DNA sequence: TTGACAAACCTCGGTCATCTATGTATATTA
DNA sequence: TAATATACATAGATGACCGAGGTTTGTCAA
């Protein structure tokens, strides 16, 4: 199913950091991996991801290193930092709170 | 806790329609009701809500009628239409899919 | 009675996240 | 050798939400 893009807003960084918390990855790989893990619900555009990665790096949440692939191509591998892990944990809590509260409103668990 | 506003994007209309699916309400009331039901996680601004209500009306998802309150003030009560209920159901499905897929990525339920 | 405040509505301009479109370069495959 | 996939990048457009301002009406205390 197609998801309204506006829902994505704000959760992209959470997902990117989540991916990186498992292993270092390069940009293009994150896009395909994100699509795979979400059953192609999220098909992040390059124009979205690369600026995000640059921002994360500038904020010290990830580091980059260039590494030559078996193919001979040079890729930029991103690795999450300690600070990045901390931010990730915060964002996870924020995400859980957010969804919980939306569900409270939508499902009407609170009295009328 | 404070939630990053960007997360809100896209879920606001879902929540507004959800509120209206229970009973007709006026704008100001929706703001206080939304805050109450979400434990003040969502404090929707008037500058956000009123334009949304106008759009919903233009799209035929809600209807408006003016009604005098006990206080003597005239309020604009919004009522969800059949079309609005249909859209609401669609948005609920979309919301559930969205959160499910984000969790799949974040919690890593899918193989590495 | 007047001044402050809450209720109730509204709009304009800005911000920020994401997308579209485009560009570059290299490796693979037809 | 031409097309396609890989891999990175940026500039401008879009769109949701907010901030800041404004208006009117009712209530309540000084």
Describe what this molecule looks like in 3D.
Two copies of one chain form a homodimer. With 112 residues, the first copy, chain A, is α+β, with helices and mostly antiparallel strands. Chain A has a single domain, classed as Orthogonal Bundle (Arc Repressor Mutant, subunit A). In chain A, 56% of the residues lie in helices and 14% in strands. Chain A has helices at residues 5-8, 12-20, 27-37, 46-58, 82-107, and strands at 25-26, 62-68, 74-80. A three-stranded antiparallel sheet of chain A has the order 1-3-2. In chain A, a hairpin with a 5-residue loop joins strand 2 (62-68) and strand 3. The mean pLDDT of chain A is 92. Chains A and B meet through helix 1, helix 2, helix 3 and helix 5 of A and helix 1, helix 2, helix 3 and helix 5 of B.
Which helices and strands occur, and which strands form pairs?
The structure is a homodimer of 112-residue chains.
Chain A: H1 5-8, H2 12-20, E1 25-26, H3 27-37, H4 46-58, E2 62-68, E3 74-80, H5 82-107
Antiparallel strand pairs in A: 1-3, 2-3
The structure holds a DNA duplex (30 and 30 nucleotides).
């Amino acid at each position: 199913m197609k998801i309204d893009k506006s829902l994505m807003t704000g959760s992209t960084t959470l997902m990117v950091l989540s991916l990186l918390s498992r292993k270092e990855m390069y940009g293009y790989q994150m896009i395909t991996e994100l699509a795979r893990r979400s059953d192609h619900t999220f098909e992040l555009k390059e124009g979205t991801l690369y600026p995000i990665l640059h921002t994360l790096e500038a904020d010290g949440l990830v580091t980059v290193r260039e590494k030559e692939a078996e193919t001979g191509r040079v890729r930029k591998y991103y690795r999450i930092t300690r600070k990045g892990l901390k931010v990730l944990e915060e964002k996870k809590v924020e995400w859980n709170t957010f969804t919980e509260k939306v569900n409270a409103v939508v499902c009407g668990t609170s009295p009328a």
